[in-house]
Specification:
The chain is an alpha+beta fold and 113 residues long. It contains two helices and four strands. It has a four-stranded mixed beta sheet, with helices on one face.
């Protein structure tokens, strides 16, 4: 059903691209979605701590955050994403990305203001 679309899209993102597709994973192996909900345009996604296993690197961190935000904000019901990690809200990810409040999607893919 349409209500399950956010979960379905997250599940596909966590699974990563098909082998031999030439595409790169944006979520670390072993990452899981513990829970998600959408209220008043904000998707709250609780990831397992494994999602932070990229071990640093601004490119890996940016790809992770952007892939989740852009995937979910393409849906009509989602305007922004609040990240949680094992039930906790962090202020910053290891490379300094601010995840203390919901992150809105951009109008264009691969475009930063």
């Amino acid at each position: 059903s349409v209500n399950d679309l956010p979960y379905f899209t997250l599940k596909k993102l966590v699974e990563g691209p098909p082998n031999k597709s030439g595409l790169v994973r944006t979520l670390w192996n072993g990452a899981k979605v513990i829970s998600y909900s959408v209220q008043e345009g904000i998707a709250t996604v609780d990831f397992s701590r494994e999602v932070l296993g990229y071990g640093g690197g601004t490119t890996a961190e940016t790809m992770f955050v952007d892939s989740v935000v852009q995937t979910l904000t393409q849906l009509e019901s989602v305007d922004a994403v609040q990240f949680l990690f094992a039930g906790e809200k962090l202020d910053y990810l290891p490379e300094g990305t601010d995840v203390s409040s919901p992150i809105s999607g951009t109008a264009k893919i691969n475009y930063r203001q």
